[in-house]
Amino acid sequence: GAVKINVSLVPPLVLLPVFLHVAALHFLLGLIVLTSLPVVVLWYYYLTHRRKERTLFFLSLGLFSLGYMYYVFLREVVPRGHVEHSQVVTLTCGLILMLAALSRAKKDPGYLPIPAGNEKPSHQGLHNKSIRGSSSGLHGISGAASSRAVNGEAKGYCRMSAEQPAGVKKDWCTKCQLVRPARAGHCRLCGRCVRRLDHHCVWINSCVGEQNHQAFILALSFFMLTSVYGITLTLHTICRGPSLFVALFYCPGAYSDYSSALSFTCVWYCAIVTAGMGYILLIQLLNISYNVTEREARLALRDNTGHRLLGGLVIDTGQYNRGLLCNWGHFLSLGASPPQRSAEDIV
Fold first, then answer.
1. What is the pLDDT of residue 262?
2. How many separate helices (H) and strands (E) can be counted in the chain?
3. Which stretches make up the Palmitoyltransferase DHHC domain (predicted)?
4. What is the arithmetic mean of pLDDT over 52-60?
5. What ranges do the domains of the chain cover?
6. Fewer Cβ in 10 A, N or C end of the chain?
């Protein structure tokens, strides 16, 4: 049959090159285009977020931006003769590593298995199951939760109480028809419950959870390093003389020919994207340092139970924070052991 193409894939493939080439025609056009692009992208994000729709637009924009920036670098910057082959190889390796980490981040974030039959029991039935704890009910769930608190939250790095932190309890998901373990959450965009759900990332069109959080951080880190390195090489080629930061704002002769203008425009486009991704990476690193997820921070703000730290950059819920080393030890151990069985399976 005919292959169905998602319409949201097309706009970035067409509009991005057009806008960048238009922006390279004149300094004022570049200012207008590069100012408008982030506004349009944010508007479209809030539009889809409000409608709770999944879209491939952001994934397409991100991947095509990477490919097109790399193409412009090879076509317009490298032929000038100021970039060594070893530098091109280094940039290419960074791009490949970033794509590899992105591919891993796109895989299963830690979906909870949907029970067979998917039949929703009544709340009374669920209550009765909890009462029958002597056989396989509440004791089975509590045992699994306690094991997760000890082995999952501080595996081999620090000791924690076998009991879950105060105020944290398993809850019933009416959509997936299962009892979620601690720190799991339901994603309305994916329609699934995810272990240790952090957030749904539109740039990878997937959730970030227990199984892919490390790969997500690696992808962001490789992107930042590769992007900054590419910006540095391009500016040193086009704007010979000034320091990197000065060249970004003052580059004599950048619009003397179209090739230089296009390269300089792409540098600014990369700088804007890198600044945005850098902010996301900063928030992620701070959250990891305090052992809090984006979902937990959002719920803490809603319920007024968290504490704003570092000027509001991080929300400390106080539930899982066991110190910097323990928190990072826990993060680095994510996915190291087989995921615990769903509480529904235990019951």
1. 96
2. 12, 8
3. 169-297
4. 88
5. 7-107+212-287, 123-211+290-346
6. N
pTM, entire model: 0.80
List C-alpha distances in Å: 240 to 124, 137, 338: 74, 71, 53
Catalytic entry in 201, 207, 251, 266: 201
DSSP class per residue in 20-70: HHHHTT-HHHHHHHHHHHHHHHHHHHHHHHHHT---SHHHHHHHHHHHHHH
Backbone φ and ψ of 329, nearest 5°: -65, -40
Neighbours of 331 (CB within 10 A): 17
* Cα–Cα distances in angstroms (integers) from residue 265 to residues 35, 68, 163, 243, in the given order: 12, 13, 56, 18
Q: What are phi and psi of 57, to 5 degrees?
A: -60, -50
How far apart, in Å, do the first and last CA atoms of the chain sit?
44
Residue 2's pLDDT band (cuts 50, 70, 90): low
* Cα gap 249→216, rounded to integer Å: 31
Residue type (1 letter), 81? G
201 counts as catalytic: yes
Cβ count near 116 (within 10 Å): 8
CA atoms within 13 A on the CB side of 20: 22
User: How far is the C-alpha of 89 from the C-alpha of 81, rounded, in Å?
Assistant: 15
